[in-house]
Design a protein that fits this description.
The protein is an alpha+beta fold and 314 residues long. It has a single domain, classed as Jelly Rolls, CATH 2.60.120.590. Helices cover 27% and strands 23% of the residues. It contains nine helices and 13 strands. The strands form two sheets. Strands 1-2-3-11-8-13-6-4-5 form a nine-stranded antiparallel beta sheet. A four-stranded antiparallel beta sheet has the order 7-12-9-10, with helices on one face. The protein starts with a helix and ends in a 7-residue tail after the last helix. It binds 2-oxoglutaric acid. The site of 2-oxoglutaric acid has 12 residues, from strand 6, strand 8, strand 12 and strand 13. Keywords: Dioxygenase, Iron, Metal-binding, Oxidoreductase, Signal. One of its GO terms (molecular function) is ferrous iron binding. Its cofactor is Fe(2+).
């Protein structure tokens, strides 16, 4: 078994041995609390000298990791308001057809899962509980690991503009995301180690936004033999996986109990957002939106739209 798998399962088995919901996290890189890191972790973690000039990004701390060129984490990038906004979008808008969800293949198109669930519809409640992902822009076909030529839904401008701003500040601009996967994690729904390599444009990063419960993200190497590093990702963080890091195995090993920030909790949130906070708290939820630029340029995109999968740049 490769070191990646040992690493992933190592964490998971430590977890189950020690305590069901909170593992021994001594070796997890924590850029939110630098004093909690082991000397070894502090050697890996570097604060980037990259300066963000746009107002929203001013004063944000950006971290890089030695040995992972092109991999950055921006701490607390999204304000609480932005996070609530994107929870709302992720629940009310993104899972609606024609976007595909994990339910589509088996159950066909299902409209307004969240709205109907809040209104008390039992079948919608069941679908909502099992909602694991939905896709935006070019819809992704999980079995063939390809983007659908014929299933393109206008990519949300707000995610596109936000990611372009981030990418430009990291010297990855201009960035035109054409697809995104929205993942709905719960305490029992994690993500195994994988590499995202279905995009024709691999020189542009994956830009990944974390909202809700704190998670343990594993970043491995380009083969499964590299032991992964474990890193905490918290609500509001943004991860940028570019450069060689774009080819690295990665996954989510744990969702941690009682880590939803107060501003997303039912007790503290503005009453008009209580329904979203209830959803987040019910199963220790974490929502992740990760955007990808699929095509190198407009010409390649048009060729794909006309003729189907491109092979030349892979
Ligand atoms: O949830 C995350 O932070 C990572 C998601 C991911 O790796 C993916 O969707 O490919």
């Amino acid at each position: 078994m490769g070191k990646w798998l040992v690493g992933l399962f190592g964490i998971v088995s430590v977890v189950t041995q020690i305590e069901a919901d909170y593992p021994d996290t001594t070796n997890v890189i924590d850029f939110h609390n630098l004093e909690n890191n082991t000397p070894e972790n502090l050697q890996v973690l570097e604060q980037s000298t990259m300066s963000f000039t746009k107002e929203e990004l001013l004063s944000k701390k950006i971290y890089t990791f030695k040995g992972y060129p092109g991999f950055y984490v921006i701490k607390d990038l999204m304000t609480p308001e932005k996070q609530i906004y994107w929870i709302k979008q992720a629940l009310e808008t993104y899972p609606n057809p024609p976007n595909i969800t994990n339910h589509t293949m088996k159950n066909g198109e299902i409209l307004d899962i969240f709205k109907r669930s809040v209104e008390g519809d039992e079948s919608a409640k069941n679908y909502l509980k099992k909602l694991a992902w939905c896709t935006l822009g070019y819809q992704y076909e999980w079995t063939t690991r390809k983007y659908h030529k014929d299933k393109f839904v206008q990519f949300p401008h707000d995610i596109g503009n936000f990611c372009d701003l981030i990418a430009c500040q990291c010297n990855y601009g201009p960035y035109k995301p054409e697809a995104a996967i929205v993942n709905f994690y719960s305490k029992d729904r994690l993500m195994g180690g994988h590499v995202d390599d279905a995009e024709y444009e691999m020189t542009k990063p994956i830009i990944s936004l974390s909202i809700g419960s704190k998670s343990i993200f594993l970043l491995g190497g380009e083969t499964r033999d590299t032991e992964p590093k474990a890193i905490f990702l918290e609500s509001g963080d943004c991860m940028i996986m570019g450069g060689r890091a774009r080819y690295c195995f990665h996954g989510i090993a744990r969702i941690l109990k009682d880590t939803i920030p107060e501003y997303l909790q039912t007790k503290f949130v503005d009453p008009k957002y209580k329904i979203y906070a209830e959803y987040m708290e019910r199963d220790m939820m974490r929502i992740n939106i990760n955007a990808r630029q699929v095509f190198v340029d407009e010409e390649q995109k048009q060729d794909f739209d006309t003729n189907g999968p491109v092979t030349s740049s892979q």
